[in-house]
From TrEMBL:
Family per record: Belongs to the NAD(P)-dependent epimerase/dehydratase family. dTDP-glucose dehydratase subfamily.
One GO MF term attached to the UniProt entry: dTDP-glucose 4,6-dehydratase activity
InterPro entries per UniProt: dTDP_Gluc_deHydtase (IPR005888), NAD(P)-bd_dom (IPR016040), NAD(P)-bd_dom_sf (IPR036291)
The name this protein goes by in its record: dTDP-glucose 4,6-dehydratase
Cofactor needs: NAD(+)
Annotated keywords: Lyase, NAD
Any one GO BP annotation for this protein: nucleotide-sugar metabolic process
Family annotation (Pfam families): GDP_Man_Dehyd
Keyword rRNA-binding applies: no
Gene, per the UniProt record: rfbB
Residues annotated as transmembrane: none
Amino acid sequence: MSNKKVLVTGGSGFIGGNFVQYMVDKYPEYDIYNLDLLTYAGDLTKHSSIESKENYHFIKVDIVDREAVNSLFEKENFDFVVHFAAESHVDRSITDPEVFVRTNVLGTQVLLDASKQIDIDKFVHVSTDEVYGELDFDPTNFFTEDTPLQPNSPYSASKASSDLLVRSYHETYGLPVNITRCSNNYGPYHFPEKLIPLTISRVLNDEKVPVYGDGKNIRDWLHVLDHCAAIDLVMHEGGNGEVYNVGGHNERTNLEVVKTIISALGKSEDLIEFVKDRLGHDKRYAIDPTKLEQLGWKPTYTFETGIAQTIQWYLDNKEWWERIISGDYQNYFEKQYNV
């Protein structure tokens, strides 16, 4: 019996990269294919510890390149596709929405079409709670899988569009799919433009930490390794066509997160710098993960244990994030693969 083949798109990004490592280590009998275009947020250096393993494979392809994607699917005949590849930075979507539509919508359609042509076990589409819009500050209100989609940024609108495409391919063509919608992730290898790694790196360098508006926007924080375990479960056990919300039960204001990091690193809150609020900045996200918990998943990290582990990881891996900030990581592919 041949090994199961798992294609992970965007496997050099933050969540996809952690998932690739998780799968390579947990399932040595599976062949894990990391497909990534290596745009600015794609970092191969994080996989230096697994790139020599026999069950890890890297492929540099643009998911919008229909010919290349179709050729790859025909050659490898994947059993699973786990689709992370996406432009995901909200600020960037506000200044340049077109690239988000290209990658997140058209790229997803290309992958769906290629998956439709082979006998695939499951197409798992990894989405975001931002497609639901925003919640008020009532702590009893949560996003469920039945919450209407009301995206408020070009990024979340592009993700909602891709979610609907995935659903339509299940309803129209019978493609076996799941959609997961997660809350804010954090943990190792988080790209330094995002709130938690940005705060850690700035505080360690005694630089100002920008906080949007009054800092009272609330997010539900999910450790990336808990998210990986959730996707693994959905991939193998998820009901065909079902949507699953993945949340951490860890709501914090942005200001609370920043202050927690500053305190843990023994620095002064004078480093906090309030800046002009983001356009269309959603007030609150909070997920009800009951449906996924009924499938058998529970988060293992509290925010307290998770943020402590994350801060320690950044202290122990300063060379990694300094290489990201300097841009040196972008030369790794050419050097390692002799391109």
